[in-house]
Amino acid sequence: MLAGYVKAGDVEEAKSIFDQMPERNIIASSSMIDLFGKTGRTTEARCLFDEMFENDMVSWSAMISCYEQNGMFEEALVLFAEMNCKGVMVDEIVIVTVISACANLLAYNEGKLTHGLACGDIRSSQRLFEESPLLDEISWNSMISGYSKAGFIRHARRLFDSMPKKDVVSWGAMISGYAQHEQYEETLELFHDMQLGEVKPDESTNNDIKINPILGATLIDMYLKSGCVQNAMEVFNGMEEKGVSTWNALIMGLAVNGSVEVSFEKFSEMQRCGVEPNDVTFLGILSACRHAGLVDEGRRYFESMISIHNIEPNIKHYGCMVDLLGRAGALEEAEELIEDMPMEPDVATWGALLGACEKHGNTDMGERIGTKLIERNQRENEETGSSENSRLEFD
């Protein structure tokens, strides 16, 4: 009965049955840890893990996976280290989970995990992975994602090519890996291979490949950076589920390609569809205004960002507005905006205004801005030098 509720993902019913069990064996406890992990209840999972009289490889694996699934990558690695210290045997499931945690730490928290440990885990994972006689698609896909996130894109491709069976997730992992490392030619080529029938869709896809929001955003961004607006629109229109990242990629890409009015239309459509714009969305819209020289529209969007959507502009939003105003000759307004910024202007922002002064022949302001730009640049160089020295001392 417990297994049925666990399989169905019914946490409360499974917990009720589990609590009434006179004896809780390792299998039942591990199943509950796995269920807690899948539903984000990491604290309950860890409490149950610690209460177990005996932990085997399955329960250790379930707890490590629980942490990794919920973005607690450091906790996953700490628990893996404890597992090793206790001499518990490790299988390929644990390894791919750990390598995924290592990859995420490398990508988002550089410096928290030493390079040697990460490379050591990757190489060990590879050996154990290759020696394992039983590998499912989840294991293969996890290794491909792990290699890609850690920057070993060639290793990921070799593994992908050697897979006995590829599912949509496999293709998505490899395509995303190429796109993340800006290898757009390979991304396009692989995506076309997928479309040409290399993937056999299951019944749930209605004989068509479903592209999730993340993969969709990646493909749209890639097509638009290549100037292929029509291809990007085809991907976008063919998607059943569109996340904010999907809309952002389209809005920003259309603006860069000069399709400003279409970009504005998509922004309005996005809100009609109930998708709330974020700071990246407004950066795309302001970029569209800048490319087209639409000062009034830029002011209106900038104001609505703050007053209607409660989004605090960052340095990039301010820089975009300064560039827009400067290009239009509104130099005093641009300078006032810089002075009113809640953060210190960077070199790029001052540089945009300086360029506008040169364009419109305002030498007095240009000299004043040039002095500030030199001072800011000197401070940045000093800060960079200090940071480098500190890092070298730490190393």
Automatic annotation (TrEMBL):
GO terms for molecular function: RNA binding. PPR repeats lie at residues 1-28, 56-90, 136-170, 243-277. Residues 373-382 have a biased composition (Basic and acidic residues). Keywords: Repeat. InterPro entries: PPR_At4g14850-like_plant, PPR_rpt, TPR-like_helical_dom_sf. Residues 373-395 are annotated as: Disordered. It comes from the Eukaryota. One of its GO terms (biological process) is RNA modification. The keyword Phosphoprotein does not apply. PANTHER family: PENTATRICOPEPTIDE REPEAT-CONTAINING PROTEIN, PENTATRICOPEPTIDE REPEAT-CONTAINING PROTEIN ELI1, CHLOROPLASTIC-LIKE ISOFORM X2. This is Pentacotripeptide-repeat region of PRORP domain-containing protein.
